[in-house]
Design brief:
The protein is 35% helix and 32% strand. With 100 residues, it is α+β, with helices and mostly antiparallel strands. A four-stranded antiparallel beta sheet has the order 2-3-1-4.
Length: 100
């Protein structure tokens, strides 16, 4: 089991485009033995402390294996919509780990 935490930063005014990409990408996770555990949109008042910019969204996803995650990234239908991600996402930070 691998865990992916992603901090996603959106370009100003591109939230709708990002949501179009997510409408394709999120359902695709389950095709590859993955599960979306959390999808959080933090607000200023929900932050207790931080030394980085507040992301637009935080995703926590688990996949049964590294291969499942790689297959998800190569999904042909998801790839058709990557231009929406490229148009809307300013930056993202991805952390990979395992449960201890």
């Amino acid at each position: 089991m691998i865990y992916i935490t992603q901090l996603i930063y959106i370009k100003d005014g591109q939230e709708h485009v990002f949501h179009q990409f997510e409408d394709v990408a999120i359902p695709t996770i389950s095709k590859y033995n993955g599960r979306l555990l959390l999808r959080i949109r933090p607000t200023d008042d929900s932050l207790i402390a931080h030394s980085i910019d507040k992301p637009y969204e935080i995703h926590l996803v688990e996949f049964d294996s590294d291969l499942d995650f790689e297959n998800f990234k190569q999904d042909k239908e998801r790839i058709k919509f990557l231009h929406l991600k490229e148009q809307s996402v300013k930056a993202s930070i991805l952390y990979m780990g395992t449960r201890i």
